[in-house]
């Protein structure tokens, strides 16, 4: 297997420590857009400008994994497309400490972190992150560039559109739809379908606002 370049050194660092414990991929370096260059090393590895990554680590010798967090969700898709356009193979990362039932189909650049349990018969597009300790029931559908945060419990048959963000510890009934670019707040209990572009939270979760122009933006304090 080729060595891997991680695109993104913010959430990329969180991913690095998650992956390093199990050693199933060999991470060579980080790359970030020149405008976001802060340090020349992260986690003991070189950080190179994305504008130069192809020259330093060519796609013929290296694969890539785009690891972008949730502060501006639309950036996840933008970075994925930029990495693709440079010709890299974008790998899937499934933690050896996750339980992923057979028959799950997925595109590329998906990350499934430790201790998550993913039910049988699911379908997943590209660029999704399933964080630690998630239960995702059988026969789910996930589009692309979504994040399911740590500790969520989502019933079987969930249908999650593109660029959805599901906060930590969300619990949700089976067979619900999550419209594109929706945001479900931390600790919510979802009992009904979630409207596209809505921010929902509470028990039961209700829409409290919409953000079609900006997409999901989350400011942690
Ligand atoms: C939904 C969310 C984005 C709202 O953030 P925000 O716009 O900064 O909102 P605030 O914290 O200012 O809260 C505004 C009000 O909504 C309430 N509220 C916010 N999130 C809520 C939630 N998930 N459930 C219930 N009430 C919530 C607050 O209590 C507050 O109520 P008040 O005005 O009566 O005091 C945020 O609460 C959230 O869920 N972030 C995701 C965190 C997460 O899961 N991170 C992943 C880490 S891996």
List the helices and strands and how they pair.
Elements: E1 3-7, H1 11-20, E2 27-32, E3 41-42, E4 45-49, H2 53-56, E5 62-66, H3 74-85, E6 93-94, E7 99-100, E8 105-106, E9 111-112, E10 117-118, E11 123-124, E12 129-130, E13 135-136, E14 141-142, E15 147-148, E16 153-154, E17 159-160, E18 165-166, E19 171-172, E20 177-178, E21 183-184, E22 189-190, E23 198-201, E24 206-210
Parallel strand pairs: 1-2, 1-5, 2-4, 6-9, 7-10, 8-11, 9-12, 10-13, 11-14, 12-15, 13-16, 14-17, 15-18, 16-19, 17-20, 18-21, 19-22, 21-23
Antiparallel strand pairs: 3-4, 23-24
Bound molecules: coenzyme A.
The site of coenzyme A has 12 residues, from strand 23.
Q: How would you describe what is shown here?
A:
With 221 residues, the chain is mainly beta. It has two domains: 3-85, Rossmann fold (3-Layer(aba) Sandwich); 93-210, UDP N-Acetylglucosamine Acyltransferase, domain 1 (3 Solenoid). 12% of the residues lie in helices and 30% in strands. The protein contains three helices and 24 strands. It has helices at residues 11-20, 53-56, 74-85, and strands spanning 3-7, 27-32, 41-42, 45-49, 62-66, 93-94, 99-100, 105-106, 111-112, 117-118, 123-124, 129-130, 135-136, 141-142, 147-148, 153-154, 159-160, 165-166, 171-172, 177-178, 183-184, 189-190, 198-201, 206-210. The strands form four sheets. An eight-stranded mixed beta sheet has the order 6-9-12-15-18-21-23-24, with no helix packed on it. The mean pLDDT is 97. Bound molecules: coenzyme A (COA). Coenzyme A (COA) is lined by residues 149-150, 167-168, 185-188, 199, 201-202, 218.
